[in-house]
Write a structure and sequence with these properties.
Elements lengths: L2 E5 L18 H4 L2 H4 L2 H6 L1 H17 L4 H12 L3 E5 L5 H4 L6 E2 L2 E8 L5 E3 L18 E5 L9 H10 L2 E5 L11 H7 L3 E6 L10 E4 L2 H13 L2
Parallel strand pairs: 1-2, 1-7, 2-3, 7-8, 8-9
Antiparallel strand pairs: 4-5, 4-6
Protein name: NAD-dependent protein deacylase
InterPro entries: DHS-like_NAD/FAD-binding_dom (IPR029035), NAD-dep_sirtuin_deacylases (IPR050134), Sirtuin (IPR003000), Sirtuin_cat_small_dom_sf (IPR026591), Sirtuin_class_III (IPR027546), Ssirtuin_cat_dom (IPR026590)
Keywords: Cytoplasm, Metal-binding, NAD, Transferase, Zinc
């Protein structure tokens, strides 16, 4: 069975990383048009770097939880498991996942806006950092901002077209194009499953498992693996 798993902020929340859409999430505490758009970066790069430096420190200091480790166990035990994440942290990798498609980039990576070179980001980035490839001082976090096209969409589309089961874990189902993955997979005949604190949109999935990710994801993985 070929499985595509999409994870969102909810899987990392129990590791202490903030979600965007909860009442105390990042949406409520920041104007994301100022810190998560190319226009905001052009207006105030120092502010944007400060925002992502704080998020990077939070992510680096966090630890993978039982849900991350369970998905890594599933990927290690079964062929044909494609793990796609909307998250920019590296908790899946540190939890043992062997391959993760980061459709929104990675907080631990830096990008040169001048030459498109990418490299491992230092813990603290600044507006005067020079690109190690071209020397231009146009470095930014390697993050897909609002208004930019997500990464690896061709790979994701191929996996969705070929999968037998699509699973969405800890995602609000409100941000496109990821919000449309369930209909895309279902259109190709896949079964669909949502694992979340509560259903994101009743009726969109064939099956819904509710509860904290650290409990529900390991239980589902054990079910798939037969105990």
């Amino acid at each position: 069975m070929r499985i595509v798993i999409l994870t969102g902020a909810g899987i990392s929340a129990e590791s202490g990383l903030g979600t965007f859409r909860d009442k105390d999430g990042l949406w409520t505490r920041y104007d994301l048009s100022e810190v998560a758009t190319p226009q905001g970066f052009a207006r105030n790069p120092a502010l944007v770097h400060a925002f992502y430096n704080a998020r990077r420190a939070n992510a680096l200091d966090a630890a993978p939880n039982a849900a991350h480790r369970a998905l890594a166990r599933l990927q290690g035990a079964r062929a044909g498991v494609t793990l796609v994440t909307q998250n920019v942290d590296d908790l899946h990798e540190r939890g043992g996942a062997r391959e993760v498609i980061h459709m929104h980039g990675q907080i631990t990576r830096a990008l040169c806006a001048a030459c498109d070179h990418r490299w491992e980001a230092p813990r603290v980035m600044g507006r005067d950092d020079a690109c190690p490839a071209c020397g231009e001082r146009m470095t930014r976090p390697d993050i897909v901002w609002f208004g930019e096209y997500p990464y690896h969409m061709d790979r994701i589309a191929e996996a969705l077209a070929a999968c037998d089961l699509f699973v969405a874990i800890g995602t609000s189902g409100e941000v496109y194009p990821a919000a449309g993955f369930v209909e895309e997979a279902a259109g190709f005949g896949a079964e669909t499953l949502e694992i979340n604190l509560e259903p994101s949109a009743p009726g969109r999935f064939d099956r819904v498992i509710t509860g904290p990710a650290t409990r529900s994801v390991p239980a589902w993985v054990a079910e798939v693996l037969g105990g």
